[in-house]
Task: inverse folding
């Protein structure tokens, strides 16, 4: 009796890939370190559903079409042995039974509108951090549906870095530990991050044992990002000197003699950012409060509050502690409020003493660098922020440089907190280190003695 010929296996998932492939949640982000097997995972995940035939339709995106070339080449190794047919003119695979996967690119946010009226049961994004905003990702959820009730999934992968580093980190990394299912409180959609490292891809380690050495040749921050999937370090990071363990501190009572002021970057459809600063006797800037007007759970989406309402609420927080000066984006003297006043006039009407910011971008970023790098006589950085300032913690370390102007920050990012901090650093207000020791009560003219607990720690919990 003749022996059966061994079956040729095109691809076998590795343990971390298997866990990701078996995960039932709607939205999954896979990756982190370079060499973790991300692209193979995306191509393999689409196969979970080919048994539904023509009811299973997927689309796999990269930001530009040339970036798809390697992905398409690799798809031949995995799909051709399964009897799938590649149609070069359409950049798509059709499987026996009718399942269809298309390869497409989304170079601009508005390109997603080309898919108005389409429907897909599977969405894939390779190198998700290449998209500066989450708009192409979120909008395509409207195309994710099945008229027959088939399972629908969104799968994506990326290394740390890129213009979209911030929103991807916010959506997937900061929601909890890896491999922990998170349910969005508004939509009820479940999502998860599964971290992949070089060690998880033993096929690559054995086939190319020198790959890890080549990663060591990268710049230190890029090596940490690509080798270990470090989401606090990224390529092109502007403020490499930022260290959360050094620059973020627990709230403490503020000295009554320290001068205080606020800084503002205005936004309506986009977030506004207000920071409150205390200047100690050494000239250290301490960010003790912030108000970031971003819609909860959204990336770079403003809360659309009228300037008059924001000004009044900010003043209410500030007047008891004697903080009445505010430096703001110079354009606040041009923008019109709902009642015909410019933004600066709305804030002045609430009680603020308004000062136009020095809008020297390169000089401003240089000053932020200086404050983060320089140490005071006590060995601590000359810029600190309370842990009660999460927007500062989230945004400052992920700002990346403009490729054409390396000394400037790329403005396509969620950079509002960065601009507001820059205004504060450049303002002459940041040079003032003393003030009277009395404060006004809200809505009253009486002067009250300074209480360190009342005006310091209590206000910033």
Result:
């Amino acid at each position: 009796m003749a022996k059966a010929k061994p079956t040729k296996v095109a691809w076998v998932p590795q343990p971390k890939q298997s866990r990701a492939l078996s995960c039932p949640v709607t939205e999954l982000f896979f990756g982190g370190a370079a060499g973790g097997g991300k692209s193979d995972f995306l191509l393999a995940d689409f196969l979970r559903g080919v048994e539904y035939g023509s009811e299973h339709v997927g689309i796999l995106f990269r930001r530009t079409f040339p970036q798809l070339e390697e992905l398409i080449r690799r798809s031949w190794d995995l799909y051709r042995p399964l009897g799938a047919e590649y149609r070069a003119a359409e950049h798509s695979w059709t499987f026996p039974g009718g399942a269809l996967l298309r390869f497409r690119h989304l170079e601009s946010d508005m390109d997603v509108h080309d898919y108005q009226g389409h429907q897909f049961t599977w969405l894939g994004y390779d190198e998700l951090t290449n998209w500066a905003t989450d708009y192409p990702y979120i909008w395509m959820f409207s195309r994710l549906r099945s008229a027959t009730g088939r399972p629908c999934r969104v799968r994506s992968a990326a290394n740390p870095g890129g213009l979209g580093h911030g929103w991807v980190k916010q959506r997937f990394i900061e929601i909890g530990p890896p491999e922990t299912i998170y349910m969005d409180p508004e939509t009820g959609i479940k999502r998860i991050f599964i971290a992949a490292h070089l060690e998880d891809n033993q096929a690559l380690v054995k086939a190319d044992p020198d790959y890890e050495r080549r990663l060591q040749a990268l710049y230190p921050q890029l090596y940490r990002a690509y080798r270990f999937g470090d989401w606090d370090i990224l390529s092109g990071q502007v403020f490499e000197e930022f260290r959360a363990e050094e620059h973020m501190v627990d709230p403490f009572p503020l000295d009554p003699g320290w001068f205080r002021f606020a800084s503002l970057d205005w936004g309506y459809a986009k977030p506004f950012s207000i920071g409150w600063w205390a200047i100690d006797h050494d000239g250290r800037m301490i960010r003790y409060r912030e108000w970031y007007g971003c819609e909860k759970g959204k990336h770079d989406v403003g809360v659309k509050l009228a300037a008059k309402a924001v000004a009044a609420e900010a003043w209410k927080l500030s007047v008891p502690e004697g903080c009445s000066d505010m430096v703001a984006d110079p354009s606040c003297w041009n923008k019109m409020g709902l009642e015909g006043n410019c933004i600066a006039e709305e804030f002045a009407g609430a009680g603020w003493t308004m000062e136009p910011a020095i809008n020297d971008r390169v000089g401003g970023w240089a000053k932020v660098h200086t404050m983060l790098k320089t140490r005071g006589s006590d060995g601590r950085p000359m810029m600190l922020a309370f842990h009660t300032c999460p927007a500062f913690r989230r945004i400052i370390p992920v700002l990346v440089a403009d490729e054409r102007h390396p000394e400037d920050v790329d403005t396509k990012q969620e950079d509002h907190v960065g601009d507001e901090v820059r205004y504060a650093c450049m303002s002459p207000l940041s040079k003032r280190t003393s003030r009277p020791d009395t404060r006004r009560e809200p809505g009253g003219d009486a002067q009250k003695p300074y209480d360190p607990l009342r005006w310091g720690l209590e206000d910033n919990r």
Q: What stands out?
A: The longest strand covers residues 285-292. DSSP finds 15 helices and 18 strands in the chain. The chain has two domains: 15-228, 244-460.
